[in-house]
Hints:
The chain is mostly helical and about 300 residues long. It has 12 helices and 4 strands. Strand 1 and strand 2 form a beta hairpin.
Amino acid sequence: MHKVTEHQDPGYTIVGNHLTQHRSLSGLAIGLAAYIQSLPEGAPVDIRTLAKRFPEGRERIAAALRELEAYGYLERVRRRTDDGRMVTVTISYNNPAATRARRAREDAAQTKRRTAVELPPAAPAPAPAPLPAPPSAPSPAPALEPPHGRTEPAPPPRRRPAPQPSQLPEPATREHHTPAAALLANLRRDDPRLLLSVRDIHRLTPPVAAWLERGASPDAVRSALTTGLPPTLRHPAALLAHRLAELLPPPLPAATPSTPTAPPAPLQTCDGCERAFRAPVPGRCRDCRQPGHRSREPLSMKLS
């Protein structure tokens, strides 16, 4: 290949090789990403507008936009306007990996600033008033000062303990990894802000599999992850990891084997009074077997 590079006048867009040489994105998705990055701020990039601009059609353009969402180059969020309407805002990232790294550094710096805040020093307790010495008691000896005029060092100020990160649960087997990954990938259907990258899905799949392994249904896991989300959600993966670690249900108790019970004896008809009673073999009921008991007349004789 031979390239001819010419100087370009103002009006060009810088596109990274991580996009133009992406191994998983389709050519249409790469072209749409480059086109969207060349547009000014506030330009419409919905499916209908892009279908009017390019000949590929709505279905292929929608599939390409979903590819860009899956790899972090696009993000579509729902926001409420000043007049109360809900609109979809599309955010374009020219370098998703750099954006995630910058946000991680900002979060780490913010966490470090919070943990570095020192507790205010406790106010010294007022010294109790000295009791008057009795007249006959000798005067107390003066307190000895440290030699060479040295003073005792003040105790170091106490610091707040740094918060420990939550340990993500791990499943015992890989049986539930596939439904767990599918559950995480479909969370954006419940809330568009829960669009996770491939790396975040790989990291959160084992904790979700641990929930499923402990008997939680997929609907219960989805409800625990999507209910009560904050209005502003900057790091959805971190919030999901916290909930998966803190709200982990206990394992189901082992089922105790039930003791088999013997079936009841069949019903028999008493030879003496024709009453029904339970016994393993035909014969007489308990009342007829008692000595001196006078058997009742059969029911057929009373009815005649």
